[in-house]
Amino acid sequence: MENAVNKRILELCKERGYTIYRLSALSGIPTSTITSILKRNNAPTLPTLQKICSALDLTLAQFFSEGFDTLTPSQSEYLTEFNRLTAHERELVLAYIQGINDSRSEAPERTDTSKH
């Protein structure tokens, strides 16, 4: 498991073009700690992994999900932006989306009666 976690961290950094130094700066974890985790094949603690995930704009679930890579670029962008919101803002966004979908399902179907 340790090897898989470290491999995933390195894959995600490579995808984003992040160096260990950049990951350190974004996560607030000392470079020496990240280097030690990766070179010694040590499993990061849960709080450390959460900070790494936050720096990579991922949740822990996304980090461990193999299906995350199957999102389209726009879906990934939506999810990334959504993850940056506060819990209250997420509730508002969800309510807004549900409102749009509800209004579409309640609106009568339009037909084009105009002549061009």
UniProtKB/TrEMBL annotation:
<feature type="domain" description="HTH cro/C1-type">
    <location>
        <begin position="9"/>
        <end position="63"/>
    </location>
</feature>
<dbReference type="Pfam" id="PF13443">
    <property type="entry name" value="HTH_26"/>
</dbReference>
<dbReference type="InterPro" id="IPR001387">
    <property type="entry name" value="Cro/C1-type_HTH"/>
</dbReference>
<dbReference type="GO" id="GO:0003677">
    <property type="term" value="F:DNA binding"/>
</dbReference>
<dbReference type="InterPro" id="IPR010982">
    <property type="entry name" value="Lambda_DNA-bd_dom_sf"/>
</dbReference>
<protein>
    <submittedName>
        <fullName>Helix-turn-helix domain-containing protein</fullName>
    </submittedName>
</protein>
